[in-house]
Recover the amino acids of this structure.
């Protein structure tokens, strides 16, 4: 089955700097790669996703890149703000029973210091 | 849109007791998922339903865990008997099919502590 590894486990940056989180996956058949943000006491929320037919996607200060050959994808946050502080999870989809079952990485705790 | 609603938010119980967690998915969503989150194992998929029917329960850890979805607006996850190692945050999530890669909408979770 699919296995997703995520690095780093913790990341500390100064406000205004960029943050990069990287993930690798094992199943070459995976074709959907979402990123979720989890704030304290809340459930994960989708912030951006990318499909395998696209190499890069951007939404304001957030961008995701995908390298299918190397089986890795990354989240880039530019001009970080304190409200970006949260735990971020990458995921990859593995087909099961007609639905693309998501397998999550272990998470990255991002701290943005003013 | 009220989002996915889970209850209770916190549950503290003694080992051996029965625990029931509840979930109300977003209206109209036809997939419902139960996840467990721990520091050691991260987010684990326990079971998911499509149109109230369990599709994949391969993530359910043991026979002590059971899940039901009696109708489109309600699901339960039951642990009987509970053990300290079941302590975790349990999330329910729902989504709408039509696009196979539709995003999951998570509830705010139930933090379970078994003493």
């Amino acid at each position: 089955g699919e296995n997703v590894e995520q690095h780093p486990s913790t990341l500390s940056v100064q406000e205004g700097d960029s943050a990069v989180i990287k993930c690798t996956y094992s199943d070459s058949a995976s074709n959907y790669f979402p990123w979720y943000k989890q704030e304290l006491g809340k459930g994960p929320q989708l912030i951006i996703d990318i499909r395998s037919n696209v190499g890069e996607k951007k939404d304001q200060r957030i961008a995701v890149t995908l390298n299918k050959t190397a089986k890795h994808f990354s989240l880039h946050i530019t001009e970080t703000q304190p409200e970006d502080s949260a735990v971020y999870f990458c995921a990859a989809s593995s087909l099961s029973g007609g639905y693309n079952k998501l397998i999550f990485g272990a998470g990255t705790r991002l701290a943005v210091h003013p | 849109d009220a989002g996915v609603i889970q209850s209770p938010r916190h549950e503290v119980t003694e080992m051996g007791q029965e625990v029931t967690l509840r979930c109300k998915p977003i209206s109209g969503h036809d997939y419902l998922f139960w996840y467990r989150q721990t520091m050691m194992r991260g987010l684990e998929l326990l079971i998911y339903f499509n149109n109230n029917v369990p599709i994949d329960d391969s993530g359910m850890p043991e026979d002590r865990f059971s899940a039901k979805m009696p109708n489109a607006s309600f699901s339960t996850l039951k642990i009987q008997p509970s053990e300290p190692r079941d302590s975790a945050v349990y999330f329910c999530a729902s989504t709408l099919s039509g696009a196979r890669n539709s995003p999951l909408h998570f509830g705010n979770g139930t933090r379970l502590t078994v003493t």
Remarks:
- Chain B touches chain A at residues 4, 31, 42-43, 45, 48, 50, 55-56, 91, 93, 97, 100-101, 103-104, 106-109 (CB under 8 Å).
- Chain B has no helices and eleven strands.
- The mean pLDDT of chain B is 93.
